[in-house]
């Protein structure tokens, strides 16, 4: 594992039009992986449009990779059913965090970067990396792959290694 460059706070906001994996509904939860780190949300029972509003935190190291997301339907007596996957490159938010220092952006809101949907990402619509009152943030809607329908809304917040007491300097 490389040098720690920051923390990423991922808020899994909501899912929209998720697929049915039980009789008429599903019991969805989200698993997010970054490198060898794994975190998951709580299960929302009987819901195809769940609202989690759950924050998960990851250490970001060089080389900067991608968030990998999987949505599952919780089952009691058999293996959980897949409800789709998505991924999001962290290169844009990481480079925007570095650019923030060069531009010395701090107060108000400044849009630093625009990411458009393409074949290399799972974006539903344009996503913006912004600096809001000194914090680098990105709101995204991701289309779930491998299923008939489903989208996830995430809010990302980058915490610099220099501004967080939780990240110790490399020895």
Topology summary:
Elements: E1 4-16, E2 28-34, E3 37-40, E4 51-61, E5 66-73, E6 81-89, H1 91-103, E7 109-115, E8 127-132, E9 135-143, E10 151-160
Antiparallel strand pairs: 1-4, 1-10, 2-3, 2-5, 5-6, 7-8, 8-9, 9-10
How would you describe the overall organization of this protein?
- This protein is mainly beta and 171 residues long.
- The protein has one domain (4-159): Immunoglobulin-like.
- It is 8% helix and 49% strand.
- It has one helix and ten strands, in the order ββββββαββββ.
- The strands form two sheets. A six-stranded antiparallel β-sheet has the order 4-1-10-9-8-7, with helices on one face.
- β2 and β3 (37-40) form a beta hairpin.
- The longest helix is centred in the middle third of the chain and has 13 residues, at 91-103.
- The two termini are 14 Å apart.
Task: Report the total helices.
Answer: 1
CATH architecture classification? Sandwich
Number of domains: 1
The residue fraction in helices comes out at: under 10%
Structural class: mainly beta
Subcellular location: Cell membrane; Nucleus
InterPro entries: C2_dom, C2_domain_sf, CAR1-11
GO molecular function: GTPase activator activity; lipid binding; metal ion binding
Keywords: Abscisic acid signaling pathway, Calcium, Cell membrane, GTPase activation, Lipid-binding, Membrane, Metal-binding, Nucleus
What's a concise summary of this model?
With 171 residues, this protein is mostly beta strands. The protein has one helix at residues 91-103, and strands spanning 4-16, 28-34, 37-40, 51-61, 66-73, 81-89, 109-115, 127-132, 135-143, 151-160. GO terms for molecular function: GTPase activator activity; lipid binding; metal ion binding.
């Amino acid at each position: 594992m490389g040098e720690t460059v920051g923390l990423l706070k991922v808020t899994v906001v909501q899912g929209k039009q998720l697929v049915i994996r039980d009789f008429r509904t599903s019991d969805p939860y989200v698993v997010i992986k970054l490198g060898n780190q794994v975190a998951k949300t709580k299960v929302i029972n009987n819901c195809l449009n769940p609202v989690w509003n759950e924050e998960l935190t990851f250490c970001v190291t060089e080389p900067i990779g991608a968030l990998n997301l999987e949505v599952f339907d919780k089952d009691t007596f058999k293996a959980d059913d897949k409800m789709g996957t998505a991924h999001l490159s962290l290169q844009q938010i990481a480079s925007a965090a570095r650019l923030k220092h060069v531009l010395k952006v701090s107060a108000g809101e400044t849009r630093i970067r625009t990411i458009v949907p393409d074949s290399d990402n799972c974006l539903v619509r344009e996503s913006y990396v912004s600096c809001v009152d000194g914090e680098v943030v990105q709101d995204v809607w991701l289309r779930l792959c491998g299923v008939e329908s489903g989208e996830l809304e995430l809010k990302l917040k980058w915490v610099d290694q220099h501004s967080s007491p939780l990240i110790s300097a490399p020895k």
